[in-house]
Hints:
With 1008 residues, chain A is α+β, with helices and mostly antiparallel strands. Chain B is an alpha+beta fold and 156 residues long. In chain B, the strands form 2 sheets. Chain B has a 5-stranded antiparallel beta sheet, sandwiched between helices.
Amino acid sequence: MSDVVEKTLSALPSLLSLDSQAGAGKLSPSSKLGNLIKGITELTSKHEEETLIKKELESIKEQVASPNTTMRQMKEIMVRAIYCEMLGYQASFSYIHAIKLAQQGSVLEKRVGYLAVSLFLNETDEFLLLLVNTVLKDLQSTNLIEVCMALTVVSQMFPKDMIPAILPVVEEKLTHPKEIIRRKAVLALYKFYLIAPNQVQHIHSKFRKALCDKDPGVMTASLHIYLQLIKENPESYKDLTGSMVTILRQVVGGKLPLDFNYHSVPAPWLQIQLLRILAYLGKEDQGTSEMMYDVLEESLRRAEMNHNITYAILFECVKTIYTVHPKSQLLEKAAECIGNFVLSPKINLKYLGLKALTYVVQQDANLALPHQMTIIECLDHSDVIIKRETLELLFRITNAQNVTVIVEKMLEFLRLTCDDYSTIDLVGKVAELTMNSVFSLGGDVMQPDIPNNFLRLLAEGVDNVEDRQLRLFAVDSYVSLLQGETAKLPQRFLQVISWVLGEYSYLREEESDPGSVMRLLARLLDQRHTSTETRSWVLGAMTKLCSSPVSVALARDVCERYLYSGSLNTVLRQKAQELMILSQDTKLRARVLPAEGRLESPEVDSSLSFLDGYVSDALAAGAAPYKSPHQRQEDLVQEKALSLEPYGLSLPVSLSSCSITDRRSPTLLSMSSGLSGNSTELSHQEGSTTLKLEGVKRVWGKDGYLAQQQSAGETPTPLVELPSPLLSPQSPPSQKPSSGLEPDQEKRQLASSLFVGLGSHNSVCLVRLPSTVWLFIKNCQSANQSNVVKSLFKPFYINSCQSKNHGSFVKVSGIFAARKSCQTDDSCCFPPQISCISGSPLKEVKGHSVSVCLHTVVMKRASVQVELAGLLSYQRPLGQPQAAQFSLSLSLKHFLRPLTVSTGDYGKMWLSFSHDLKQNLRLVTTEHQEPLTATLDALKGKLHLHVVDIIGSEGIVACRLLQGPGQGQPCLLHCRVHADSLAVWLRSPVPELPDSLLYHCQKALTET
Amino acid sequence: MQFMLLFSRQGKLRLQKWYVPLSDKEKKKITRELVQTVLARKPKMCSFLEWRDLKVVYKRYASLYFCCAIENQDNELITLEIIHRYVELLDKYFGSVCELDIIFNFEKAYFILDEFLLGGEAQDTSKKNVLKAIEQADLLQECCMTDTVSQSFSMV
């Protein structure tokens, strides 16, 4: 019959075209399906659609159940059922009828039946068993179309267990005279191979016959199987290399019938398939690879037409060239090809170019170098997909030198993205980078902010499933690291590990015994190479983990060793003692380590008010009053007029008596562990985290002395950042461009930092760095905040604003680091609200050196916030003078200081001040304190006010504003608890001060 | 290829073909998410998406989006051409195809797809062959109808 059909087909081409048009009749509004579809398009609401479809399904159900429904009607009904399913409504009652239609219908009805089955059912569906006999019957039919339909359905879905039943018949079809049948049979076998490889093992020789089939379609189909086979086991198929190469050469040479051309490219699908097979065959095999060099080169050469399809082939070709044993000539051409992709204005090609680069840089990172600028542009591309691929690329070229910038970029992306999947993926990569390359390469000398950033990311995430997974991932990977050889891991990394394990080990507790982490940590303590600082981190982690009986026993064991076997380090003894006490006292444990409270961040009382009683007792007992480090420093200076040892790190008392439950991010921890005022520990601090000051010292001549003296009183953290631009040529991470900036400049800068370390000695960099001057501006604020402002000016970088309360003045200092020598001088222009009362001029800055200048500023007129703007002009030895602007915003609270007065004096002052203001503020409520005390404490902590006295429900508070040399202008506050709020009455001799201060009070209380 | 979806600019599904076994629930979830993601993309953006662990290749033809999910090591550009070839086939069969053709004759669109892609792999890249196979089956339809018509006549 099929022959008859074919004859008719060839004899009546005109009729055919008419037929197909009739078959494609635009609408058949009279049909039931047509009505249904039309009905649905006319509806306006989802609800109406539901009602209509329900009605439709009811009527379908009725009809399929009726014995009078003919197969022809059934076919039409089935189409409607498919439509309903596509809209998302279940028509499961019709499944069985679909099978029935496939079984009993005529050829055409069968076709719809099979279609419905393949759309409705799954490979695992039991209904499919009912279809096996039908398929078997159809496979053996003399009707070509029925055989085709049966083969189509088996290659889409067939129950795995039933394959043996039909396998012989399908196999038989491999020798069928019609190529369409042979082709479908090959594809069906391919499908069988995928779901049950063992069952088709015996017919591998028949696959070879299919590969040699005279019909290109059948041959192409057989390549699917071979691709799979070769991918799994390339060794067994090396002998096919010659045939594959020959086939590809013929295809590329245009030997196939023109039918197989696609947009005048010969059989592109076939070409790509062959290229992929060659890649698997030639991988790590020089001999085999040599056989294919010629044909690969020819493929590259032939694919020159400007059409997507040629690019598809080129892309695959490049991939193959980079997978097989390398041949320099080919590699060059492939690299050129990638270049064309990357530079293409077509976004799809650009994406593939990046993808190809990602693939090839794993072999040769230098390949990324010529495309630096493009990569930088792609990093800021509006399309997230491009951005992500670029990050992926950067991920591959990460080394010890550029890791900072790349991790920063990734974190930046993370902050913007909201897609869970990519977040997890990327965070995994960040973690991997941080763990592997940074820590093991950069380890101890690395800046502390990378691990801190990473840990902050871990700690700050909202408590959802993804974050838990991420933390668990970190914990798991660290545990497995500790189980291995730990001797080579850098100390800083071990510290990070300890912290993470301490914080998040509970996440995995369910699945492993709780003692395992504890044991690993204990092992770490036993090792000789573990530094004392790391040991104290480890003990800290153990303290947090000390909750289960096993852990307690272990902890006790460890502590005993530390306490009794004579460790000389006081910090360790202290921590061990704490742990010991904790392990012995169950009640204390329950209070300190609440099971639920893990994720709440604790309140930190930075004013240390809970120590007040202790302090006053000590004072009464005759102890010397506390002096701030700054004061101490000044005393010191007074004693020895010209101290040349400004770096005897004098340290402020940090808030860290390192409370056990302190769950802050370790930015603070890392500092505080080193700064807890303990001399033994200090020496370590110097050894591990501290700064490389050699470069700085040299340039701080006589003029810089003032700066030395002042900055010596600061925390060392800002200093740590100084040397970074000098030590490595990379720019500070994540500058934000600001107005008036030449974008190119910035990109180059970024490029140089991203691609540092690639190529030999950096000299290969195509983009040369302009000589750069760095500007760090520090402003001074209160002790515990480090407000990092980053902005970028051409060609200056205001890197960071670190801050510190200096007693009497707010100081703004600029530090200028030059990479090439140049002249600088700066002029800060102070708007009316601020005035500068002292400043140090800038001098010539030699290459790779730093110059520091400090300005002391005060607030002339009280206002909520002031902008400090400045202009820095500088001149390179042989260049034009240039200038850069910068600005800095300072808030009133930076200029406030506590005013210590007696209650009597307060009363006198109160009466003499004329400007006043009254307002109700909200009360702060805490568990342990009276609302009034709590509120005043909050204000005191945030705004540096002095609480003069509290009597009953009233409190008096005083502060002063730095307005010039001397004490500054006072502002007094009278507070009274009234119902649920705090009635505040402010008085000051300065007109604007009460108003501005009130604003900050409101803000401070809202934030609490 | 893992699956192919056709949907309109309004997000209405017009055709779905799954080459991997998934439960109805998963299919619905994937469809919903993917349609949303693709519709949210701007016209100048690239046609590839990294989506979960898959790569999604999509292209818009008039009011219809054609969207394929492939594995990571697959060639994106050739997938784009598979979509294009499918559109060419539809166009040739329907004669300048439009969304309405596919809405009202979706079963035909499925038949053409099955003839072009089998089990997720391009089975025949020759346009002529695909159309020949479809037309053969269609012609059969006409024959049968003539048969039944003549049968009913003879009964009369």
